[in-house]
Design brief:
single chain; 223 residues; alpha+beta; 48% helix; 9% strand
Length: 223
Amino acid sequence: MPLTVHHLQVSQSERIVWLCEELGIPYKLKLYQRSPVLSPPSYLALHPIGAAPVITDGDDVTLAESVAVGGDNVVVKPSAGRKEYAEYLYWLHFVNGTLQPAMGRAFSLRLAGVDEDNNQRARVENKLHQALSHLDNRLKQTRAWLAGEQFTVADIMIVFSLTTMRKFMPLDLRMYEGILGYLRRVGRREHYRRAMKKGDPDLDAEEALKGPPPEMFAGLKRK
């Protein structure tokens, strides 16, 4: 039985579709539409906390959490050297440990209508800028991928936050030249384009790779 990727469309589970394409492994793709913003009941039933992504392998393996899934040819191993391995580990966990929480906090305050001159919102927005500037400087340094010359699962992890996630939280990236150059490199990867076409055929992936905020997710417009 092939691996089954349960993809909640317009979500971070796009990472796993992309990963499977990069690895060239056979998989079955099941698509689930948001209803209208959150996961539908059929997706929530897959995992106790209704997490996305979810993969199943046969009848006895169900796995959630993007970072729990990887593959030998998209990881940096300890044998590559202490510095290289440390950089890989740091940037792999930077996404869910620093960047995405910073984006989530900023989005929550904006959604709650907190004024821009509010001290708490100012601190949160500043932390987000710090995280993006840190990432921007790293990408200017490597001029390639997060871990260095090698494309890794760290890159697969972070691209969602810089692209599709911005459909839920308008974020302008035009001041971050390193990030924009990085997203252009991502857009040239055949496996990324193929994954997005399979998993989210109605999503304008090219728009999300650019600096201006992409169009807001339709379910949020109706609110």
